[in-house]
Amino acid sequence: MIRTVLCYGCETWVMNNKIESALDAFERKILRRIVRPVNENGQWRIRCNQEVMEQYRDIDVATHIKLRKLEWAGHINRMEDQRIPRKVMEGRIYGKKPIGTPKDRWADAVREDARQVLGVTAWKRTSLDRSDWKRRIEEVKARFGL
Fold first, then answer.
1. How do residues 85-119 score in pLDDT, each as one tens digit?
2. Checking DSSP bridges between strand 38-40 and strand 43-45, what pairing results, if any?
3. N or C: which end of the chain has fewer CB atoms below 10 A?
4. How far is it, in rounded angstroms, from Cα 143 to Cα 146?
5. Which of 115, 99, 97 is nearest to 107 (CA)?
6. CA 113 and chain centroid, separation
7. What is the pLDDT of residues 4-16, one digit of tens each?
8. What is the SS3 string spanning the chain?
9. What was the pLDDT predicted at 52?
10. How far apart are CA 2 and CA 56, in angstroms?
11. For residue 89, which of 78, 77, 97 has the smallest C-alpha distance?
């Protein structure tokens, strides 16, 4: 239930390393409260991260978000060109650019997630075949035992 609330709308997020670390730390903090401390030789101790994640046996929240984002990206890529989500994904924003480092773009994050998680370099072409795209995502989930 916590992950459901935490990941609401996560398909549209652009995550950097700082956000990923914060989400993973939050997840471990909640799981540590759920699994409770352990009593060893009359001394209570809090479980370490590895113990918590071994007991949980699920993918971390950052990988879960990446998979959801990839599912959504494939869905949008297969839409007709007239649909609003497709127009937004492929549209360009015109105007003056702000000073400083450019913000991360959603499409760039999807391309990087597809390369890291699925091992796919041309994600737009690959996602056009719905069954192959879904199979690849399911394989990653199966790798983590889902």
1. 888 888 877 888 888 887 788 889 999 999 999 99
2. antiparallel
3. N
4. 8
5. 115
6. 8
7. 888 899 998 988 8
8. CHHHHHCCCHHHCCCCHHHHHHHHHHHHHHHHHHHCCEEECCEEECCCHHHHHHHHCCCCHHHHHHHHHHHHHHHHHCCCCCCHHHHHHHCCCCCCCCCCCCCCCHHHHHHHHHHHHHCCCCHHHHHCCHHHHHHHHHHHHHHCCC
9. 77
10. 14
11. 77
pLDDT over 60 (residue 23): yes
Judged on CB neighbours under 10 Å (0-12, 13-18, 19+), 124 is middle
Distances (CA, A) of 94 to 65, 124, 135: 29, 24, 37
Q: What are phi and psi of 47, to 5 degrees?
A: -70, 145
Q: Check: CB of residue 23 under 8 Å from CB of residue 6.
A: yes
C-alpha 10/C-alpha 61 separation (Å) is 10
Determine what percent of the chain is predicted with pLDDT higher than 70.
99
Amino acid at 139: E
Count CA atoms within 13 Å of residue 43 on its CB side. 4
